[in-house]
Amino acid sequence: MTPHPFEAAIALSAQSDDVWQGHTSEAYGNMVGPFGGVTAAQALNAVLQDPRRLGQPIAFTMNFAAGLAHGPFVVQAWPARTNRSTQHWIIEMRQGDDTVATATAVTATRRETWSVNEVAMPEVPPPQEVPAPARVGRVEWIHRYEMRFIEGALPSKWEGAQLDNSRTRLWVRDNPPRPLDFASLTALSDVFFPRVWRRRATMTPIGTVSITVYFHAGEAQLQRTGAGYLLGQAQAQAFQNGYFDQTAQLWNETGELLVTTHQLVYYKE
Amino acid sequence: MTPHPFEAAIALSAQSDDVWQGHTSEAYGNMVGPFGGVTAAQALNAVLQDPRRLGQPIAFTMNFAAGLAHGPFVVQAWPARTNRSTQHWIIEMRQGDDTVATATAVTATRRETWSVNEVAMPEVPPPQEVPAPARVGRVEWIHRYEMRFIEGALPSKWEGAQLDNSRTRLWVRDNPPRPLDFASLTALSDVFFPRVWRRRATMTPIGTVSITVYFHAGEAQLQRTGAGYLLGQAQAQAFQNGYFDQTAQLWNETGELLVTTHQLVYYKE
After folding, report:
1. Residue B132: its pLDDT value, please?
2. Reported ipTM
3. What's the pLDDT band for A138 if we cut at 50, 70, 90?
4. How far apart are CA A32 and CA A34, in angstroms?
């Protein structure tokens, strides 16, 4: 059986205790280099694969220092501190002698406590009632996701716009469907197209500078979610002199908030 | 003239190119150890003071790996990658041989572009019409900030509650007032008491695990803001099995969105 393209994309081979080798994925290619969500998943995967790992990821921040060239890379990941129930990781990704990304991760063993979603899933039609877009994307990676836009799809005309908000809501899952895990949830956190395109319908060059993912979901919630759809919602808070932020949520179909995530994105004009 | 207590708190002395020595501040003491906002400001200050620094901070993430003991610490900060207009920093804070915090920062030279606040400042009474709390805090650091709560103050009775949201709005500035800079803006990003206390009025032990600050403000906006008040707003999105998130915004009095910030916080029960 051919492995799922995501499996192949995030595969790493151990070089030493701290160092892993991987390769960018053509299947997740972007306009220039690879889709950043998969690059982030590759970096986190070095932690996920590490036998020294304590618990599950709860917080992950990735800073994109340079566009990756298609080809091999190494990930160096080491636990800077291990406590009784939490562990703190520093991660660097390199191509040749150049650092292309820096990251940190926190993993933890979790136990049951009082819990509540404060931000309820918005009321939206179920995925089966939202048409899948027929549009053929200009970049390869978007074919790896089934995106059913409820609100705020990619503009159909790039003629400028004066929208008063940048919000997008969509049902999304891996294509073909694949049981959710922490690596794929990381990639899905970056699935939203840039808010500046939505807000302005102007095709300005962009690039994610930093993304942070908070994992509210533990293993049990991932298993309950399986290969089902996630409801994604993303919106900017500020666009200011070359950088905007994007804040986003991912719920599973039963309304459990699995992830809250934020990113800072460069835009040219 | 005595320096402002914040000045004294974040002071670092250079040990080598990458290494700085500092000391926790009793003036910003918390229940156990120091106020995390000042610890974050100390770590960022190693970047701010570094002659190699390119531009201004745009993104900063700090992971608290252990409670700091009152006493000296070292900050090691190095530029892992320097591009034409951005620079990527890795930062570790240590006490003795132990890593107590890990962090990353991105700095950048900014230029003027199309800009807009998507999240407008909420309509609230001006700071002069909001009473300053007379309450004497149980921890030292809160005396270093003038906090005028508009909504969602610290519960006056710890008898449990069934609130449906955790939102706080307040006017806040350094006490005594001090012209805003990137270090103080970092500390102010952590000024909100834990959302779980607000939501439940139950005094469960908490601790910030990770905080991310996106600086929308550049130097010009900091100068325009001066020693004025900031409107702070904070709210949780999810409380789940020992960790909750908190998303927050800081505007200046004229409604410019200076910072959006997020954190993940441990809570015991």
Report:
1. 87
2. 0.97
3. confident
4. 7
- Distance from C-alpha of A265 to C-alpha of A166, rounded to nearest angstrom: 14
Phi, then psi, of A73 in degrees rounded to 5: -150, 165
- DSSP H helical ranges for chain B: 5-10, 36-49, 182-188, 195-200, 219-225
CA separation, residue A150 to residues A127, A154, A171 (Å)? 9, 11, 7
**Touching check for B157 and chain A: CB below 8 Å?**
no
Minimal Cα–Cα distance from B92 to chain A, Å?
9
Tell me the C-alpha distance between A146 and B81, whole Å: 35
Chain A residues touching residue B243 (CB < 8 angstroms) = 58, 108, 110, 214, 216
Q: What is the pLDDT of residue B135?
A: 66
Distance in Å, alpha carbon of A93 to nearest chain B alpha carbon:
10
Of B58, B238, B240, the CB nearest to A243: B58
Full DSSP string of A107-162: EE-------EESSPPPP---GGGSPPP-PPPSSSGGGGEEEEEEE-PSPSS-S---
Smallest CA–CA distance from B255 into chain A, residue: A238
pLDDT of residue B2: 84
- Is the Cβ–Cβ distance between B168 and B205 less than 8 Å? no
Contact of A88 with chain B, judged by CB distance below 8 Å, is answered with: yes
Q: Which residue of A has its CA nearest to B267?
A: A113
Question: What's chain A's length in residues?
Answer: 269
Nearest CA-CA distance, residue B261 and chain A, Å: 9
Quick check: bond before A57 cis, omega within 30? no
Average pLDDT, chain B: 96
pLDDT tens for B83-138 read 999 999 999 999 999 999 999 999 999 999 999 999 999 999 999 999 987 666 78
Backbone φ and ψ of B27, nearest 5°:
-65, -25
Token pair, residue A268, equals 């040219």
Tokens of A50: 């590490």
User: Which residues does A61 contact at the CB level (< 8 Å), separation at least 6?
Assistant: A103, A104, A105, A210, A211, A212, A213, B61, B104, B210, B212
Cross-strand partners of A211: A62, A263
Helix (H, G, I), strand (E, B) or coil at B52: coil
- Would you state the structure tokens that stand for residue B203, as one six-digit string? 């005094």
Distance spanning both ends of chain B, measured CA to CA: 46
Tokens of A63: 């800073």
* One-letter identity of residue A106: V
Tell me the DSSP string of A180-238: --HHHHHHHTT-SPPHHHHHH-----EEEEEEEEEE---HHHHHHHTT--EEEEEE-SE
Task: Pick the closest to residue B58 from B252, B216, B221 (CA basis).
Answer: B216
Residue A197 and residue B168: Cα distance in Å, rounded? 32
Closest-CA distance of chain B to residue A64, Å: 9
Interface size A-B, in CB pairs within 8 Å, comes to 212
